[in-house]
Write a sequence for this structure.
């Protein structure tokens, strides 16, 4: 190995998760902060979490519900227009 070009290796680096879990790994930084780890990641926990960004999930769920209500009575294009009108009405009523 060439001298002076490699970062310092810390065999006991701390990894701190946002959920509060702390464990050690080998790394080139002494302390690493992370948002998700194996204790809180949905793949390992088996629970589903939806991160809602500015109401996107709520709007989608409203559209899905409106589509299911109108699915058997209307054609596809008419149904899409009606769904968007229903969602828009709900959003303006909430504001």
């Amino acid at each position: 190995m060439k001298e002076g070009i490699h970062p310092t290796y810390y065999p006991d680096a701390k990894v701190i998760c946002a959920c509060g879990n702390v464990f050690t790994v080998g790394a080139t930084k002494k302390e690493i902060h992370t948002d998700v780890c194996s204790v809180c990641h949905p793949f390992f926990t088996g629970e589903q979490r939806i991160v809602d960004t500015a109401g996107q999930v709520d709007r989608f769920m409203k559209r899905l519900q409106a589509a299911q209500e109108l699915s058997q009575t209307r054609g596809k294009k008419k149904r899409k227009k009606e769904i968007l009108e229903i969602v828009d009405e709900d959003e303006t009523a909430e504001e």
